[in-house]
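Predict structure. Chain length: 320.
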Amino acid sequence: MTKKRIMSQSKLFKDYYAAVLRTYFKEGTIDLRYCNMEGQEIVKLLEKVVLVHSINTKLIRLNLRGNQFSVYEVNRLAKLLGQCSALTYLDLSGNMIGAVGTESIMAALTQYSSLAIKHLNLSDNNIGDAGTASLAPALTQYSSLAIKHLNLGYNNISDVGIESLAPALAQCSSLAHLDLYGNKIGLNGTESLVSVLGHCGALTHLNLNRNNIGPDGAEKIAGVLPQCKALAHLNLYGNNIGNIGAEKVLEVIPQCKSLTHLDLVLNNINDRALDAIEKVCKQCPSLTYFDLNCNMFSAYGDMILTEVFKIQPPIEHQTR
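Prediction complete.
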């Protein structure tokens, strides 16, 4: 191969990656979600674009949602992330990286003291309890990971995983948004979580959507809610809390002055809880969204709720 041809190919590759850079890198963000490329292609592309074009100090947000990476590719990606000193937003959701991939990512993120990830989305990765076990020490040990938004939804995490994660969450003084939806959290996991929520003074959003905390778990949640002074959004959708659990939660809502959104969808709540619901609506002017959709209210109950939700200020609501 002639020198001229080598130089021509080099220029071709340089022009190609420059074009990729113009396409995918905008205002500090690389967005490669659902990009329909093989994992190895994505990693190679990132290595070339980030390192060759020296944007590692300019990359702030990296979105890799909905791709597929092997363990080897995750390891390469982890090493690359360690060199992105400006990175604060990382979305790896829907990549099925598993527990091993999670361990690699967290090891890389915590190895470099210059990193300060604020938003970390690891949802839908099947990390399981083993993955949370590797996540916990990283959150505890390294203050550089000042996480504000942590998403661990749809990860097959049980009570065991929450028990290992909970003490680490207590160290996350900046944590504002915690997503644990679609896992397997029961009463024991709820107790572990409740034991540390009072230490999360910055927490504004708590999403426990589609777990299995039940009425006893709801009572545990209710016990800690008054301590969560900043909490604005509480999502207990699909947790089978029933009337007993709903009443326990609703009983303390008037003490939650910051709460604006409450989601109790699909919880087997019926007309027996109407008095508690009406009381909350009348006593909580800060509550602007209250979702009771897909419960067990009768036609009479629906009529009562329609009237209740007309109070001033009106509450945006769903009942069917």
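Summary: Residues 18-156 form a domain with the Leucine-rich repeat, LRR (right-handed beta-alpha superhelix) fold (CATH 3.80.10.10).
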